[in-house]
């Protein structure tokens, strides 16, 4: 029994088996030093085996002089890096943060990008996102569309031109000239990223239809000018797209990231071919190093009938295949307001992506894309010591990702148990090691020697 997993792990497993009270938020321990013996971990391609050590929030090559937590994983459990969510909106207001931030940690999603906030709404969230037990979050605070564009219909109490002009959550631009005029205002919103909306850009006739108000987007020439201005100012651009033509327009504009795989939705009941990417477009995206955020989980929100859903899923499979074949960087993002990247992981699994690819995208590629200046998604010395402990092999059973037994962020244990968080920094021993024999006193040694003679 001496090789049982440390008591801490057992405590965490037991606590996860019971539904924690929703009023108990996650808390972070002090930074801990760890010794993880006989570990298995996913390195982005396959499982590795060996011992891992953590000190001062990063993985290190040698066992620390002082170890707070020593665990023998017996080559049974598996470590993966935390997941990342590249496209959502549920953490960009104080209300949303209160509702969903703990869900991110619970789901093992430690990194997130919120793609359409406004400066006033995001301001009270930033200090919350800086706490150790919070998901690391980047915010886009310059969200730009046309005066009749998406998402105005969703955010306005009354979808009208007058209401659109009166709001200040979203920047409205109608031409390249307006883009240049409003650039100082756009810059003042802060952030390193802009979000542009392209929606059915190949159909200008829709702008004459009142029923389409709030569902369209920028003209391609306006998107191109905004991208030029952003790049000249050292900023990056992510573009919302709906159709394959929008995808082409985004590439022509020179954007950095495309949000949505075309075919994630079909709100105008168009033919599936409208969303089919060409091999030429996929090759162009690869040449321009333009990444694509998948968001296929969002398709389920539209409640399509069986035939329409099957047709859309086939387009998604084909688009994913073309992008992968061309070497385009895919990023995991769900755009599911009540969910996280975990939903997208399973949606892509249903579309046929293999488990090793999915785990690499979710735990390595996407975190590094969101926070390029940090050493994330790895277990080598110097990498941030953030990881999830799973009960089994996620390459064989992806559902293991849904049941993390342990969550560690930069060496800190994340737990809903306040007493565990508070006491974790104490130096501890573990059943990973056999008990040490007590040294005999001089008198005891003499007595033992006498008995032998």
TrEMBL record:
Span of the signal peptide: 1-17
Keywords, comma-separated and alphabetical: Hydrolase, Signal
Top-level taxon of origin: Bacteria
Biased composition (Basic residues): 437-453
SUPFAM superfamilies the record matches: Metallo-dependent hydrolases (SSF51556)
UniProt name for this protein: Amidohydrolase family protein
Domain Amidohydrolase-related: 215-401
Biased composition (Low complexity): 422-433
GO molecular function annotations of the record: hydrolase activity, acting on carbon-nitrogen (but not peptide) bonds
Biological source species: Roseateles saccharophilus
Record-linked PANTHER family: ALPHA-D-RIBOSE 1-METHYLPHOSPHONATE 5-TRIPHOSPHATE DIPHOSPHATASE
Region (Disordered): 422-453
Keyword Signal: yes
């Amino acid at each position: 029994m001496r090789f049982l997993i440390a008591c801490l792990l057992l405590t965490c497993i037991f606590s996860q088996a019971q539904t924690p009270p929703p009023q108990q938020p996650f808390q972070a321990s002090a930074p801990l030093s760890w010794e993880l013996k006989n570990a298995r971990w996913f390195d982005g391609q396959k499982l590795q085996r060996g011992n891992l050590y953590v000190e001062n929030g990063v993985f290190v090559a040698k066992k620390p002089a002082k170890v707070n937590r020593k665990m023998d994983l017996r080559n049974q459990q598996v470590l993966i890096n935390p997941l990342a969510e590249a496209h959502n909106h549920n953490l960009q207001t104080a209300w949303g943060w209160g509702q969903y931030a703990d869900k991110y940690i619970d789901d093992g999603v430690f990194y997130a990008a919120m793609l359409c906030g406004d400066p006033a709404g995001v301001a009270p969230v930033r200090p919350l996102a800086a706490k150790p037990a919070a998901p690391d979050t980047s915010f886009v605070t310059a969200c730009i569309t046309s005066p009749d564009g998406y998402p105005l219909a969703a955010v306005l109490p009354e979808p009208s031109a007058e209401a659109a002009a009166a709001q200040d959550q979203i920047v409205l631009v109608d031409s390249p000239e307006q883009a240049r005029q409003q650039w100082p205002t756009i810059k003042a919103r802060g952030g390193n990223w802009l979000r542009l909306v392209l929606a059915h850009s190949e159909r200008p006739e829709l702008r004459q239809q009142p029923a389409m108000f709030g569902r369209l987007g920028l003209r391609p020439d306006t998107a191109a000018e905004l991208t030029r201005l952003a790049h000249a100012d050292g900023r990056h651009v992510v573009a919302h797209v709906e159709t394959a033509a929008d995808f082409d327009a985004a590439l022509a504009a020179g954007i950095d990231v495309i949000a949505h795989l075309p075919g994630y939705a079909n709100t105008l009941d168009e033919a599936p071919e409208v969303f089919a990417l060409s091999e030429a477009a996929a090759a162009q995206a690869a040449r321009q190093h333009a990444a694509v955020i998948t968001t296929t989980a969002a398709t389920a929100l539209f409640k399509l009938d069986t035939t329409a859903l099957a047709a859309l899923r086939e387009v998604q499979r084909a688009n994913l295949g073309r992008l992968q074949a061309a070497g385009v960087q895919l990023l995991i993002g769900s755009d599911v307001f009540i969910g996280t990247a975990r939903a997208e992981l399973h949606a892509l699994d249903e579309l046929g992506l293999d488990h090793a690819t999915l785990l690499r995208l979710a735990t390595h590629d996407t975190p590094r894309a969101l926070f390029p200046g940090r050493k994330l998604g790895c277990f080598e010395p110097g990498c941030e010591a953030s990881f999830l402990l799973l009960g089994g092999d996620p390459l064989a059973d992806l559902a293991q990702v849904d049941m993390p037994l342990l969550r560690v962020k930069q060496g800190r244990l994340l737990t809903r148990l306040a007493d565990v968080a508070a006491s974790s920094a104490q130096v501890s021993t573990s059943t990973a090691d056999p008990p040490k024999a007590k040294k005999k006193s001089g008198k005891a040694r003499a007595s033992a020697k006498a008995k032998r003679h």
